């Protein structure tokens, strides 16, 4: 049985366009065909569509007036409310109308509203202090509900803004979210307390990290090229960041930690201003402030002390090297 396509309208506001760039790294050789195969029609995207000028203006007017159905309004980038709440810092090109006005109008008729990336979700990098553009997210300002549309906003489906957070987002998070919405499979129960889809937000970056053996023994990296765990000294927040980056790899094979970079927790509100250098772990009395999200501090201190006392020499040496210098011992492992 043929059914109507799931219409997606994509707007870009105050941001770098990195989430669209990431989306193009989706695991397919034909991006548009993949969308069509899932029953999704991309009404317009500022970089991926041919229409421009009066053609786009007519499409937007048709959407607002209900002549074209909008099943999902996707917004990438923070919403720029300045100066003084007028939104005049950012007009949608050729319309002389502030982007925030277009977003409010379209959100009012869309079945679903989706924030693509941490800028659209919480304000992100675009809202960094002193925030001269008055940037905010669609329904949040950092961790505080509100944003452009207000804490009580619900789309025609009854859902709040779906926050596909990340800087940038993983293409799989975006596509899986749109496909779930198209199939009616993303209910309020499938969203976490910050309205992120649980299929990726109920995971931690720590899960599947290739440095987990070093983490278990608290064998820590001391400089960027080291193989050891980056939590203790290098600012890694993988035990706190909600994402599946190390189990759903980027481009099929990579992640920040696998590339030697500490996780900066880019899916979380306020990640852009940690109040310390990203590559440094702040500590009190030698204990990292940012502990795993669900572990009491006393337990962590006790576990870390025991782990370090039991660390094999192999792990200690390899943790502060840029390659494996001591391989695992070769021993018989057959049961007797």
TrEMBL record:
Domain annotation Cytochrome-c3 hydrogenase C-terminal: ranges: 203-278
Enzyme Commission numbers on file: 1.12.99.6
Catalytic activity: H2 + A = AH2
UniProt-listed Pfam families: NiFe_hyd_SSU_C (PF14720), Oxidored_q6 (PF01058)
UniProt xrefs under PANTHER family: HYDROGENASE SMALL SUBUNIT, NIFE / NIFESE HYDROGENASE SMALL SUBUNIT FAMILY MEMBER
SUPFAM superfamilies according to UniProt: HydA/Nqo6-like
Protein name: hydrogenase (acceptor)
Subcellular location: Cell envelope
Ranges for domain NADH:ubiquinone oxidoreductase-like 20kDa subunit: 16-181
Subunit structure: Heterodimer of a large and a small subunit.
EC top class named in words: oxidoreductase
Keywords from the named record: 3Fe-4S, 4Fe-4S, Iron, Iron-sulfur, Metal-binding, Oxidoreductase, Signal
Needed co-factor(s): [4Fe-4S] cluster; [3Fe-4S] cluster
Family per similarity comment: Belongs to the [NiFe]/[NiFeSe] hydrogenase small subunit family.
Organism of derivation: Azohydromonas lata
InterPro entries: Cytochrome-c3_hydrogenase_C (IPR027394), NADH_UbQ_OxRdtase-like_20kDa (IPR006137), NiFe-Hase_small_C_sf (IPR037148), NiFe_Hase_small_N_sf (IPR037024), NiFe_hydrogenase_ssu (IPR001821)
């Amino acid at each position: 049985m043929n059914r109507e396509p799931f219409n997606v309208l994509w707007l870009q506001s105050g941001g770098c366009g990195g989430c669209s760039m990431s989306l193009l790294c989706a695991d397919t050789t034909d991006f548009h065909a993949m969308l069509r195969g899932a029953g999704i029609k991309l009404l317009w995207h500022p970089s991926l569509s041919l229409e421009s000028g009066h053609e786009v203006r007519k499409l937007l007017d048709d959407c607002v007036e209900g002549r074209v159905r909008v099943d999902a309004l996707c917004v990438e980038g923070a919403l720029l409310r300045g100066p003084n709440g007028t939104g005049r810092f950012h007009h949608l090109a050729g319309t002389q109308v502030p982007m925030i006005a277009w977003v409010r109008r379209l959100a009012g008729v869309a079945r679903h509203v989706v924030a693509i990336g941490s800028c659209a979700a919480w304000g992100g990098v675009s809202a960094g202090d002193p925030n001269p553009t008055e940037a905010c997210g669609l329904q949040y300002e950092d961790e505080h509900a509100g944003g452009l549309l207000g804490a009580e906003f619900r789309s025609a489906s009854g859902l709040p803004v779906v926050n596909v957070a990340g800087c940038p987002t993983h293409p799989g998070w975006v596509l899986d979210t749109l496909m779930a919405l198209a199939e009616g499979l993303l209910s309020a129960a499938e969203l976490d307390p910050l309205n992120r889809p649980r299929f990726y937000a109920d995971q931690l970056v720590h899960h599947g990290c290739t440095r987990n053996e070093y983490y278990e023994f608290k064998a820590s990296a001391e400089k960027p090229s080291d193989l050891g765990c980056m939590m203790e000294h290098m600012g890694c927040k993988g035990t706190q960041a909600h994402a599946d980056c190390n189990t759903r790899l980027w481009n099929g094979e990579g992640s920040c930690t696998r590339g030697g970079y500490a996780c900066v927790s880019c899916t979380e509100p306020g990640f852009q201003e940690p109040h310390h250098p990203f590559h440094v772990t702040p500590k009190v009395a030698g204990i990292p402030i940012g502990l795993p999200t669900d572990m009491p501090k006393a337990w962590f201190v006790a576990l870390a002390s025991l782990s370090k006392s039991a660390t094999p020499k192999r792990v200690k040496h390899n943790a502060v090297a840029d390659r494996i210098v001591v391989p695992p011992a070769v021993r018989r492992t057959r049961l007797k």
